[in-house]
């Protein structure tokens, strides 16, 4: 609509004659987007973007929809016709329009207040619902929580696409929190199909066209069932969430493929999405030179010619002659192997061009036919992709959305910190680990230095040297999560202190003291028609879901009852909505799993050199322990966590393994620690 209508002079003439046009960046103002999307869903039964809303001067909508063409056709009303007719209606029957807007306002008000008589056409799994805290005698979370987890799993299993992975039909979105929930469910219910569902989905996405095999990173979603044809836009939050869940799957399964995918995501983000100041940019567009996907698509001839001309790079690659001697004098064979592996054909798989994808290729069979091991085949393909990447870089790149959003940066800090943890103790990945830790710390440092106003209020957006817009719930919740994960990765107390401070600020700014949970906007934010409150976990977790996880972790880490009480209240506040349709709230389900788990509290107490510390971390983070917390007690931690004064600080490092705050005798070696953690 931007090109078709809003940059069109005819449309502009009508808009400027009868309306005050306002264009909203929904990433900068998600509060406005949430509010008016709720209107659209209640008025039309559906939502989506672009969102088009007509409202009275006092901001009350009376008409809403998504995409409208410039002119009416095929039964779809055109924007010019809508604007003309509404403009006339406003002149002749203004009172009727205002009355309609007032009635809609009352309906949405009842909806936000939880009135069961409020009519809504919103699908249950799409609602931005109001939430009322359950009464204290309504049931034990250990009972209702387990029931809702089982229901959530059953409904996910029912929607699972066993052939191609993912859930439902096209379009398919990555939604990493769905997979994170299932990974955790597989721990408690190993007889279930949860792990199979996760692995099938991760394998299909990594093989499919939704993953950029040449330059890395995931596109926003797949337009088809097969993960083949993506919407080519790349979003920071998708790549952060996917890197995290691939790392968790690697911990769980030990499949090297999952670690490689995560590291490739990080390679893309550090190469293309990192600002000079250390923050991470939002997104890369789908279009270049006015065509969607043009930057990423290849003709059969382009692939073949580029690889033929680049074969000298293969010959010069280190150790290439030892491994690929049979192929180096036969470049045509290398080209055929690549085209076979990635489904490159003359007719193409998308509008006459090719999206490199391994979703339909038989990798193991190809390796056997070429007398290569799987790793050797991967290395050969990687060398070919390096040639193609160098050639692709000469094309006009898609535009970059160079805003830096605190919320999305918090997600990426968390993912990078998880990478630091998973790579601990593996000397072959030491340089990668150092790079990931540096990137995570630089991003956190940038936010702390540049993203607060003079009053100490966290801001949401930074661009071109200017930070602005009071931070939303997601900014606080996602950043707290990133800082806690970063503390787990490196043990620097400052990150724990910052996380606790931000959580305390969140309580002051966003807490709904009446009904529980957190509003999306702070009490100091611009006044809208309502203060939205969101828990639905869509492309990203909601701020309320992430906050539930943060509160449980703070409780487990500090042992302080105030965090336990807030965590339990947060979980109970949203029971009604989550019980109604659990698959819509899988990030929140992870908070329930956390609260019900018998996770470990590990205290690393004493002085330690980097090598000694890394050996202990390697044991702790080797396997999938999503509900473990790690405290690094160097003698000063008691100022932040009072219970740390009970742990002696010696000149040598020892580890206390505790469950429900009851600790075993400390151990001093990685071998002893590994034995306890596997019991």
From TrEMBL:
InterPro entries: 6-hairpin_glycosidase_sf, 6hp_glycosidase-like_sf, Ssp411, Ssp411-like_TRX, Thioredoxin-like_sf
Domain Spermatogenesis-associated protein 20-like TRX: 1-108
Coiled coil: none
Gene3D superfamilies the UniProt entry points to: 1.50.10.10, Glutaredoxin (3.40.30.10)
One Pfam entry name: Thioredox_DsbH
The protein's name: Spermatogenesis-associated protein 20-like TRX domain-containing protein
Species: Dehalobacter restrictus (strain DSM 9455 / PER-K23)
């Amino acid at each position: 609509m931007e090109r078709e209508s809003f940059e069109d002079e005819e449309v502009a003439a009508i808009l400027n004659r009868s309306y005050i046009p306002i264009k909203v960046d929904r990433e900068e103002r998600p509060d406005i987007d949430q509010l008016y999307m709720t209107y659209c869903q209640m008025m039309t039964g559906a939502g989506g973007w672009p969102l088009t809303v007509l409202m009275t001067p006092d901001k009350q909508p009376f008409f809403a929809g998504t995409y409208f063409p410039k002119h009416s056709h095929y039964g779809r009303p055109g924007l010019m016709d809508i604007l003309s007719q509404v403009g006339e209606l406003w002149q002749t029957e203004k009172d009727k329009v205002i009355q309609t807007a007032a009635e809609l306002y009352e309906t949405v008000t009842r909806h936000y207040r939880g009135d069961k008589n409020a009519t809504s056409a919103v699908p249950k799994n799409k609602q931005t619902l109001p939430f009322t805290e359950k009464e204290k005698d309504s049931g034990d979370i250990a009972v209702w929580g387990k029931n809702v987890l089982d229901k959530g799993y059953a409904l996910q299993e029912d929607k699972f696409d066993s052939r191609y992975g993912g859930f439902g039909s096209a379009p398919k979105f990555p939604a990493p929190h769905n997979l994170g929930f299932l990974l955790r469910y597989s721990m408690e219910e190993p007889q279930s199909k949860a792990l199979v569902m996760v692995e099938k989905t991760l394998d299909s996405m990594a093989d499919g066209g939704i993953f950029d095999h040449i330059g890395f990173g995931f596109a926003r979603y797949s337009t088809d069932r097969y993960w083949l044809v993506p919407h080519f836009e790349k979003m920071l939050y998708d790549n952060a969430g996917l890197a995290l869940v691939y790392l968790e799957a690697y911990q769980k399964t030990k499949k090297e493929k999952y670690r490689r995918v995560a590291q490739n995501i990080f390679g893309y983000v550090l190469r293309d999405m990192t600002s000079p100041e250390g923050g991470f940019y939002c997104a890369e567009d789908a279009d270049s030179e006015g065509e969607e996907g043009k930057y990423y698509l290849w003709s059969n001839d382009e692939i073949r010619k580029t690889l033929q001309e680049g074969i000298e790079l293969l010959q010069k690659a280190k150790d290439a002659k030892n491994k690929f001697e049979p192929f180096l004098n036969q470049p045509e064979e290398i080209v055929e192997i690549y085209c076979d592996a990635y489904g490159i054909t003359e007719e193409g798989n998308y509008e006459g061009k090719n999206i490199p994808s391994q979703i339909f290729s038989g990798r193991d069979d190809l390796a056997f036919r070429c007398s290569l091991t799987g790793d050797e085949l991967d290395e050969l393909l990687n060398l070919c992709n390096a040639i193609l990447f160098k050639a692709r870089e000469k094309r006009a790149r898609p535009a970059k959305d160079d805003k830096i959003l605190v919320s999305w940066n918090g997600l990426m800090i968390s993912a990078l910190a998880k990478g630091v943890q998973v790579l601990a103790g593996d000397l072959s990945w030491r340089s990668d680990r150092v790079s990931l830790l540096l990137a995570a710390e630089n991003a956190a440092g940038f936010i702390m230095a540049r993203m607060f106003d003079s009053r100490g209020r966290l801001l949401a957006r930074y661009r071109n040297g200017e930070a602005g817009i009071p931070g939303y719930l997601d900014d606080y919740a996602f950043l707290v999560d990133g800082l806690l994960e970063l503390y787990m990765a490196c043990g620097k107390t400052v990150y724990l202190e910052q996380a606790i401070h931000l959580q305390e600020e969140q309580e002051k700014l966003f807490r709904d003291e009446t009904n529980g949970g957190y509003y999306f906007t702070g009490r100091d934010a611009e006044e809208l028609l309502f203060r939205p409150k969101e828990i639905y976990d869509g492309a990203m977790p909601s701020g309320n879901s992430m906050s539930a996880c943060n509160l449980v972790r703070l409780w487990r880490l500090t042992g302080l009852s105030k965090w336990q009480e807030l965590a339990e209240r947060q979980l109970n506040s949203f029971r009604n909505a989550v019980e109604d349709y659990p698959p819509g709230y899988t990030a929140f389900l992870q908070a329930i799993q956390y609260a019900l788990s018998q996770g470990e509290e590990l205290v690393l107490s004493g002085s330690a050199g980097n090598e000694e510390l890394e050996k202990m971390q390697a044991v702790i983070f080797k396997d999938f322990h999503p509900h473990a917390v790690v405290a690094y007690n160097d003698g000063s931690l008691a100022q932040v966590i009072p219970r740390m004064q009970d742990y002696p600080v010696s000149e040598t490092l020892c580890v206390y393994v505790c469950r429900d705050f009851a600790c075993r005798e400390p151990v001093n070696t990685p071998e002893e620690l590994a034995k306890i953690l596997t019991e």
